[in-house]
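Hi R.,

Here's the chain you asked about this morning:
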Amino acid sequence: MQLTQEILTLLQQDSTLSPKAIAQMTGSDEETVRAEIERLRDEGVILGYTIRINTEKSPIPTVEAMIEVKVSPQRDLGYNDIARRIYKFPEVESVFLMSGAYDLAVKIQAPTMQAISAFVWEKLAVLDGVTGTATLFIMRKYKENGTILVEDEVPERLVITP
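And here is the predicted structure, written out as C-alpha coordinates:
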Protein backbone atom coordinates (compact mmCIF):
# COMPACT_ATOMS: atom_id res chain seq x y z
CA MET A 1 0.00 0.00 0.00
CA GLN A 2 2.86 2.36 0.83
CA LEU A 3 4.47 1.81 -2.59
CA THR A 4 1.14 2.31 -4.36
CA GLN A 5 0.61 5.62 -2.58
CA GLU A 6 4.13 6.78 -3.39
CA ILE A 7 3.77 5.86 -7.07
CA LEU A 8 0.44 7.66 -7.40
CA THR A 9 1.76 10.77 -5.65
CA LEU A 10 4.85 10.89 -7.86
CA LEU A 11 2.86 10.38 -11.06
CA GLN A 12 0.40 13.09 -10.05
CA GLN A 13 3.30 15.50 -9.62
CA ASP A 14 5.02 14.46 -12.88
CA SER A 15 3.36 11.94 -15.18
CA THR A 16 6.50 11.73 -17.34
CA LEU A 17 8.47 9.88 -14.66
CA SER A 18 9.71 6.50 -15.85
CA PRO A 19 9.37 3.33 -13.76
CA LYS A 20 13.16 3.43 -13.37
CA ALA A 21 13.05 6.96 -11.92
CA ILE A 22 10.15 6.07 -9.62
CA ALA A 23 12.02 2.98 -8.43
CA GLN A 24 15.04 5.12 -7.55
CA MET A 25 12.86 7.64 -5.72
CA THR A 26 10.97 5.01 -3.72
CA GLY A 27 13.85 2.64 -3.04
CA SER A 28 12.08 -0.14 -4.91
CA ASP A 29 13.12 -2.11 -7.98
CA GLU A 30 12.06 -1.10 -11.49
CA GLU A 31 10.15 -4.31 -12.28
CA THR A 32 8.03 -4.02 -9.12
CA VAL A 33 7.16 -0.41 -9.97
CA ARG A 34 6.35 -1.31 -13.59
CA ALA A 35 4.07 -4.16 -12.44
CA GLU A 36 2.30 -1.92 -9.90
CA ILE A 37 1.66 0.79 -12.51
CA GLU A 38 0.27 -1.83 -14.88
CA ARG A 39 -2.00 -3.19 -12.12
CA LEU A 40 -3.25 0.31 -11.33
CA ARG A 41 -4.06 0.87 -15.02
CA ASP A 42 -5.85 -2.48 -15.30
CA GLU A 43 -7.97 -1.72 -12.22
CA GLY A 44 -8.94 1.72 -13.54
CA VAL A 45 -7.10 3.65 -10.84
CA ILE A 46 -4.79 5.30 -13.38
CA LEU A 47 -7.03 6.54 -16.19
CA GLY A 48 -4.53 8.46 -18.28
CA TYR A 49 -1.69 10.94 -18.28
CA THR A 50 -2.07 14.65 -18.95
CA ILE A 51 -0.07 17.84 -19.05
CA ARG A 52 -0.78 21.15 -17.35
CA ILE A 53 -0.78 24.19 -19.59
CA ASN A 54 -0.42 27.76 -18.40
CA THR A 55 -3.15 29.29 -20.57
CA GLU A 56 -1.79 32.80 -19.97
CA LYS A 57 1.43 31.85 -21.79
CA SER A 58 -0.09 29.52 -24.37
CA PRO A 59 -0.37 30.73 -27.99
CA ILE A 60 -3.79 29.07 -28.21
CA PRO A 61 -6.55 31.43 -27.02
CA THR A 62 -8.44 29.79 -24.17
CA VAL A 63 -11.15 31.06 -21.85
CA GLU A 64 -12.26 28.95 -18.90
CA ALA A 65 -15.36 29.16 -16.75
CA MET A 66 -17.00 27.39 -13.86
CA ILE A 67 -20.73 27.10 -14.36
CA GLU A 68 -22.90 26.40 -11.37
CA VAL A 69 -25.96 24.41 -12.38
CA LYS A 70 -29.15 24.00 -10.37
CA VAL A 71 -31.13 20.93 -11.39
CA SER A 72 -34.35 19.17 -10.61
CA PRO A 73 -33.31 15.51 -10.50
CA GLN A 74 -35.67 12.99 -12.10
CA ARG A 75 -37.19 10.18 -10.07
CA ASP A 76 -35.07 6.98 -10.12
CA LEU A 77 -32.30 8.75 -12.08
CA GLY A 78 -31.11 11.33 -9.58
CA TYR A 79 -28.25 13.60 -10.55
CA ASN A 80 -26.40 10.96 -12.58
CA ASP A 81 -28.57 11.28 -15.69
CA ILE A 82 -28.27 15.06 -15.99
CA ALA A 83 -24.53 14.90 -15.17
CA ARG A 84 -24.09 12.31 -17.94
CA ARG A 85 -25.87 14.50 -20.49
CA ILE A 86 -23.68 17.45 -19.51
CA TYR A 87 -20.30 15.69 -19.51
CA LYS A 88 -20.86 14.38 -23.04
CA PHE A 89 -20.55 17.90 -24.49
CA PRO A 90 -17.04 18.34 -25.96
CA GLU A 91 -16.64 21.79 -24.38
CA VAL A 92 -17.02 20.34 -20.89
CA GLU A 93 -13.77 19.59 -19.09
CA SER A 94 -15.16 18.50 -15.69
CA VAL A 95 -18.48 17.97 -13.90
CA PHE A 96 -18.83 17.73 -10.12
CA LEU A 97 -21.79 17.07 -7.82
CA MET A 98 -21.58 19.79 -5.18
CA SER A 99 -23.13 20.77 -1.89
CA GLY A 100 -24.44 24.29 -1.50
CA ALA A 101 -26.78 26.55 -3.45
CA TYR A 102 -26.14 24.78 -6.77
CA ASP A 103 -26.10 21.06 -7.49
CA LEU A 104 -23.44 20.68 -10.18
CA ALA A 105 -20.25 22.56 -11.05
CA VAL A 106 -19.19 22.39 -14.69
CA LYS A 107 -15.72 23.47 -15.84
CA ILE A 108 -15.57 24.40 -19.49
CA GLN A 109 -12.98 25.67 -21.97
CA ALA A 110 -13.62 27.59 -25.18
CA PRO A 111 -11.73 30.05 -27.38
CA THR A 112 -13.84 33.08 -26.34
CA MET A 113 -16.22 34.30 -23.64
CA GLN A 114 -18.93 34.49 -26.30
CA ALA A 115 -18.46 30.78 -27.07
CA ILE A 116 -18.93 29.95 -23.39
CA SER A 117 -22.02 32.15 -23.20
CA ALA A 118 -23.45 30.48 -26.31
CA PHE A 119 -22.79 27.04 -24.80
CA VAL A 120 -24.70 28.02 -21.65
CA TRP A 121 -27.78 29.43 -23.36
CA GLU A 122 -27.92 27.08 -26.37
CA LYS A 123 -26.92 23.74 -24.83
CA LEU A 124 -26.79 23.75 -21.03
CA ALA A 125 -29.65 25.94 -19.79
CA VAL A 126 -32.16 24.30 -22.16
CA LEU A 127 -31.55 20.74 -20.92
CA ASP A 128 -34.53 19.09 -19.27
CA GLY A 129 -33.99 19.21 -15.54
CA VAL A 130 -31.77 22.32 -15.50
CA THR A 131 -33.52 25.04 -13.51
CA GLY A 132 -30.75 27.64 -13.25
CA THR A 133 -27.15 28.45 -14.05
CA ALA A 134 -24.51 30.93 -12.89
CA THR A 135 -21.40 31.39 -15.02
CA LEU A 136 -18.14 32.37 -13.33
CA PHE A 137 -15.35 33.24 -15.75
CA ILE A 138 -11.86 32.35 -14.56
CA MET A 139 -9.93 35.59 -14.84
CA ARG A 140 -6.52 34.36 -13.67
CA LYS A 141 -5.18 31.14 -12.25
CA TYR A 142 -2.56 31.28 -9.54
CA LYS A 143 -2.27 27.60 -8.72
CA GLU A 144 -3.88 24.59 -10.37
CA ASN A 145 -3.54 20.90 -9.55
CA GLY A 146 -0.65 21.66 -7.21
CA THR A 147 1.29 23.68 -9.81
CA ILE A 148 1.96 27.37 -9.19
CA LEU A 149 1.27 29.22 -12.42
CA VAL A 150 2.53 32.70 -11.56
CA GLU A 151 6.03 33.81 -10.88
CA ASP A 152 6.61 35.25 -7.44
CA GLU A 153 6.61 38.97 -7.83
CA VAL A 154 9.07 40.64 -5.50
CA PRO A 155 7.96 44.19 -4.86
CA GLU A 156 10.64 46.76 -5.44
CA ARG A 157 11.53 48.77 -2.37
CA LEU A 158 11.67 52.47 -2.77
CA VAL A 159 14.93 54.07 -1.87
CA ILE A 160 14.46 56.29 1.14
CA THR A 161 16.98 59.05 1.54
CA PRO A 162 17.34 61.31 4.58
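One quick note: The mean pLDDT is 91.

Cheers,
M.
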